[in-house]
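Comment on the following before class.
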Amino acid sequence: MIDHHVHATPSKDKLPRSQQLAWKMAELAADPVAVDDEVIEMVINRIIDNASVAIASLNRGPIKSARAMALAHRREGGATLFGAGANVTVCAEWAAWANGTAVRELDYHDTFLAADYAHPGDNIPPILAVAQQVGVDGQALIRAIATAYEIQVNLVKGICLHEHKIDHIAHVGPAVAGGVATLLNLDKEIAYQSIQQSLHCTITTRQSRKGEISSWKAFAPAYAGKTAIEAVDRCMRGEGAPSPIYEGEDSFLSFILNGRTARDQGKSPYEPTYIVPLPAPGEAKRAILQTYTKEHSAEYQSQALIDLAFKMGKKIDDFDQVKSIVLHTSHHTHYVIGTGAGDPQKMDPNASRETLDHSIMYIFSVALQDGRWHHIDSYLPERAKRLDTVRLWHKISTVEDPEWTRRYHSHDPAEKAFGARVVITMEDGSIIEDEMAIANAHPLGARPFGRSEYIKKFKMLTDDILEPAESERFLDLVQRLPQLSAAEVQKLNPTVCADYLVENPAKGIF
């Protein structure tokens, strides 16, 4: 790996392309390096994982809206939609929109956490949509997905967005553009312009994950994927982008991220420097192996705490005898899904599912009481409003522990942690205390996910929706991904029974 030092640069210095981060990502996208067998296996796992959570969400509100919009943009020889069958095709960018929303809705697919946050599986729907529309085979699809993961994971390692209240989809756009460039074997110039346009058009604020969280949380990465496809299309037609998009004097680093802070303090505009690692030319793209999926349908930083709650709940006979629960955890967990966020909605039994999904206080209380977590039942309004749960929920608080913050940011996989130490104080003064660093399903956890676990998750989420023959058809097809023809790639989205899909009857513009 090569550590690239990236900083804002005055226009008068005319930063050469060879020194620009977008160009280095374009070079990565154009590198024809072979994909390792481990990476191929994980790409297959993540396509299965995406299909699991997408099929389970097909009749939820945001997905019905996104599908209706996509169906208004039919295209013969286009891309397919989750559930709709290979004979229903729409424009690739709209398939990316509908399918990306379906994947994201339940907050149940893969994750990567470092300086910032990421759900790298968000790259798969737009790349698959383009692959289907242009007609490429399984090998090309694998290479493209490996590129997209490589770009997003390494941007997340080097550039923190959330401290400036910028949503993490700003890393999704360039990753999708880079992946599509690999998919189509685009030259570096087109890839470079596409990556820049994609970043420029996908810089949005984190209000989508703050306060009263709405359905936009599901749409946000789908928007980034759709936008990236459109950016690549424009650049393939000869159009350009604002340059340099990362380092420009009035651009991303300078006026949205830390460059502004440096300027306000009278420092050189060359400070601070972000360090983004990328593979050297000819080096394999293996970043997908550093990512991890979810066993539970909730924000990733709650995964280990759900597992811990299952364990600790067995030691409590009467939850009304709990006096207080304090979660000693990392900065990110405290300020994003904990009481450090300062969001009263995180303690509100009338809050949306999206908000409850980002409240570790709610999640820990339900997991503690129920000893299980379910992607639907655990969020039902009647579950959230249960009086004994509300009483327990409101006794929970989080505090930042510097050691958990250090471990969260550690580059050592054996130290890196996303959990907490939990102290439960009972009314009689007794204390129940325990901690968990990583979720059971994490690659280093007690029960790491392998192919069988991904298939189990797929069946658990889809057995009541898909016909057994269709389930087996999809699983057989995706596990032969390296050998798939372009025609077979067209069939990679599972199809539900004709009468299963419920459509949104509301009329829009399209």
Observations:
- DSSP finds 21 helices and ten strands in the chain.
